[in-house]
């Protein structure tokens, strides 16, 4: 298999995920350029450029990854597409609804832009989606997400519901209560006293009887004092985190668990790694990167990178088209607007609805 040449635009925390993963998979990727003004010892071998124009005047990547601020992203995506370079954009692709519409008008018909929405590809979410798609809980009618924020939570809801681009109605409120917040991205904090924290709760009417409940507390990604919860309700049962309850025969209901097989525990000496997830004796998810010892977030991002690689090479389907990400963020923006106005918000159909 030929290596795919990639470029990374951005110097922040998220950009470094892509660089580390590409370096960890040298048989798959060659990083031909990094648009940044930073110097980091771990990436000294990666050629650095000061701008996209500088990059493209020297190399021709098979695709580029943009991992910059929300406001800066659309301009860079447009510049790359106009140069004929496919783009894997970080989330969200633009900051607000006007930005989403403008970006779509500029590049939406190019079929050059995918978005790095990783949450449906996290191992346990991917396993849950496989179980739900198998039909064991029947037709899905509602999804409750309490783990991540905004467009990521909406992406999960839409994935489980099979929701398309129809207008939705959102009703949201914010509640403030004391909560200790001992951890953030940088690690443990010295100040672990309880402070006011906002919890946003929203209901989302996706029409046709499909609904979502959004529940997110400040810093819930890192604050382990709050569980991550997912509930998917179908006509024949439900998935509650790792438990699946469903009707299996007349007068018979059962509950099974999604079981994760993790190498490196106890006397398993094969290295610390996720191997697979099973359900009722069947493997429903396999880690494509066994041996690299990646955490779940890295597995999901690496999966997107490989899918993007296959897509630009003509050997796979589109990983997450711009239209899907625009719809995710449109709904997430409606949650924010409902809190701001104190009233329900109904979205309109975006131009990406096609």
Write a brief caption for the model.
The chain has 354 residues and is of the alpha/beta class. It is built from 8 helices and 19 strands.
Task: Describe the 3D structure.
- This protein has helices at residues 13-24, 52-56, 73-82, 97-107, 123-133, 150-161, 296-312, 322-341; strands spanning 4-9, 29-35, 48-49, 63-66, 87-89, 113-115, 140-146, 169-179, 183-184, 187-188, 195-207, 210-217, 229-234, 237-240, 243-249, 252-263, 273-279, 282-286, 345-346.
- By secondary structure, the protein is of the alpha/beta class.
- The chain has two domains: 4-115, Rossmann fold, CATH 3.40.50.720; 120-289, Dihydrodipicolinate Reductase, domain 2 (2-Layer Sandwich).
- It is globular.
- The two termini are 35 Å apart.
How is the topology of this model organized?
Elements: E1 4-9, H1 13-24, E2 29-35, E3 48-49, H2 52-56, E4 63-66, H3 73-82, E5 87-89, H4 97-107, E6 113-115, H5 123-133, E7 140-146, H6 150-161, E8 169-179, E9 183-184, E10 187-188, E11 195-207, E12 210-217, E13 229-234, E14 237-240, E15 243-249, E16 252-263, E17 273-279, E18 282-286, H7 296-312, H8 322-341, E19 345-346
Parallel strand pairs: 1-2, 1-4, 2-3, 4-5, 5-6, 7-12
Antiparallel strand pairs: 7-13, 8-11, 8-19, 9-10, 11-12, 13-14, 14-15, 15-16, 16-17, 17-18
Helix pairs in contact: 1-7, 3-4, 4-8, 6-8
Radius of gyration: 21 Å
Morphology: globular
Helix-strand sequence: EHEEHEHEHEHEHEEEEEEEEEEEHHE
Taking the sheet with the most strands, its summary is: 11 strands, mixed
Strand line-up of the largest beta sheet? 18-17-16-15-14-13-7-12-11-8-19
CATH architect. name of the largest domain = 2-Layer Sandwich
From the 3D structure, determine the CATH topology of the largest domain: Dihydrodipicolinate Reductase, domain 2
* Relative helix content: 25-40%
Q: Name the beta content range.
A: 25-35%
Number of domains: 2
Report the span from N to C terminus. 35 Å
Strands, total number: 19
Structural class: alpha/beta
Number of helices: 8
What low-confidence regions span 5 or more consecutive residues with pLDDT below 50?
none
Q: Determine the mean pLDDT.
A: 96
Q: What CATH first level of the largest domain would be assigned?
A: Alpha Beta
């Amino acid at each position: 298999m030929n290596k795919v040449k990639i470029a990374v635009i951005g110097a922040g925390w998220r950009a470094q995920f892509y660089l580390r993963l590409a370096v960890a998979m040298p048989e798959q990727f060659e990083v031909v350029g990094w648009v940044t003004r930073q110097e980091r010892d771990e990436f000294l071998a990666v050629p650095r450029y000061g701008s996209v124009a500088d990059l493209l005047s020297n190399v021709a990547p098979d695709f580029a990854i943009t991992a910059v601020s929300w406001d800066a992203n659309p301009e860079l995506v447009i510049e790359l597409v106009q140069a004929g370079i496919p783009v894997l954009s970080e989330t969200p692709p633009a900051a607000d609804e006007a930005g989403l519409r403008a970006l779509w008008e500029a590049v939406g018909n190019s079929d050059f832009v995918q978005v790095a929405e990783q949450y449906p590809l996290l191992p346990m979410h991917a396993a849950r989606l496989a179980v739900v798609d198998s039909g064991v809980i029947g037709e899905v009618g509602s999804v409750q997400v309490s783990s991540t924020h905004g467009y990521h939570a909406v992406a999960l809801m839409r994935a489980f519901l099979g929701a398309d681009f129809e207008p939705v109605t959102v009703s949201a409120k914010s509640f403030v209560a004391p909560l200790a917040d001992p951890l953030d991205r940088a690690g443990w904090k010295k100040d672990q006293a309880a402070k006011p924290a906002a919890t946003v709760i929203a209901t989302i009417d996706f029409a046709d009887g499909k609904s979502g409940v959004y529940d997110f507390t400040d810093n819930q990604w890192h604050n382990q004092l709050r569980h991550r919860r997912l509930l998917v309700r179908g006509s024949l049962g439900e998935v509650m985190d790792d438990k699946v309850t469903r009707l299996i025969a007349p007068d018979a209901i059962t509950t099974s668990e999604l079981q994760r097989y993790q190498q490196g525990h106890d006397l398993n000496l094969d290295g610390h790694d996720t191997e697979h997830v099973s359900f009722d004796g069947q493997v429903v998810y396999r880690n494509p990167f066994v041996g690299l010892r990646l955490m779940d977030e890295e597995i999901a991002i690496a999966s997107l990178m490989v899918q993007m690689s296959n897509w630009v090479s003509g050997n796979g389907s589109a990983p997450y088209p711009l239209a899907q990400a625009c719809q995710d963020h449109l709904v997430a923006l409606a949650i924010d607007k409902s809190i701001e106005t104190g009233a329900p918000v109904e979205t309109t159909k975006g131009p990406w609805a096609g």
